[in-house]
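Exercise: predict the fold of this chain.
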Amino acid sequence: MGEWVAERVMSFLMAFVPIFFAVDAPGVLPLYIGLTEGMESDVRRRVLRQSLITAFIVAAGFVFFGKTIFVLMGITVEDFMVAGGALLFIIAAMDLVTESKYTRRVPETVGAVPLGTPLIIGPATLTMALMLTGVYGLWETLAAVVVNILLAGVIFMGADTLTRLLGPAGSRALSKVAGLILAAIAVMMIRRGLAGALAAVAAKQP
């Protein structure tokens, strides 16, 4: 029994580490601050809760049914990357070129998209989880994903303190920098998605 538990714990840890780097909660923190800049504390908490719930539902659904759904609908990971990248780019562009925050007008949805997905749980994390499921087991991988989502929530809870330290001007500046980073991430996702799709088409050519 003890050996079985030790094996499960080791499998969990082996799955946890790559998913931690795929989620990259510290890297997403400035984007979270930028997207929620100007929101009241209670609204920001609601957005955070929504983002974590969305991330969990998407991750759990993908771990259990992702491969089957993608096959049935003819969707590839590359398609997911292009769609997610396009959505991120639109949100980033609206933030950068307008004075009023796009997220202030839709605080009810920003927690789900783009925070929950594709920022917290995106194509890289979903692909990683699907791969690790076959290596370390479904439940160990799912547990690693859930713990990483909760860890992201803990990290994001520090956003209020960081915002107070930065002040209004600093928060606004960080918001614009985050918008640029978000746009760059979007372009990267689209580029990788298109490259993967073209490579797949080339591989099928005789």
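Check your answer against the key: Confidence is low (pLDDT under 50) at residues 101-105.
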